[in-house]
Amino acid sequence: MGEGCGIAMLHLLKTLSQSITSSMADMWELEIPLLVKYLEEHTEFTWNQKMWEDRLIQFLRNSLKMTLGSHWSLRLSKELNNQMESFDSPSLEKVGSQRQGC
């Protein structure tokens, strides 16, 4: 599962963390490699969508705590909410897109 856009996006977030908001940089330095590792270690046969979503939600919660009240956290919340609505149920296209390059 680790060949797709997810890993590239996580690496980009980690790289841009200081630019996005410096208050999260240290936490993202620790948390993002764990998310990447989860993607790299699982295949379509071992993938647990609920576990992945739980990890992402916890990552978001921790990130939002670091930026409580900032304009950035409001924008992030809205965008993630929009993204979550489009992933109500796993489909072959969604699973396949996680493995394909960006």
Strand content: under 5%
Main sheet record: none
Sequence of secondary-structure elements: HHHHH
> Percent of residues in helical segments?
over 70%
- The number of helical elements comes to 5
Rg value: 14 Å
The best one-word shape is globular
Total strands: the figure is 0
Low-pLDDT segments, ≥5 res: none
Structural class: mainly alpha
Distance between the termini: 13 Å
Protein name: MROH2B-like HEAT-repeats domain-containing protein
Domain MROH2B-like HEAT-repeats: 2-94
InterPro entries: HEAT_MROH2B-like, Maestro_heat-like_prot
Organism: Rangifer tarandus platyrhynchus
Notable traits:
MROH2B-like HEAT-repeats domain-containing protein; 5 helices; 102 residues; mainly alpha; Maestro_heat-like_prot; 73% helix; HEAT_MROH2B-like
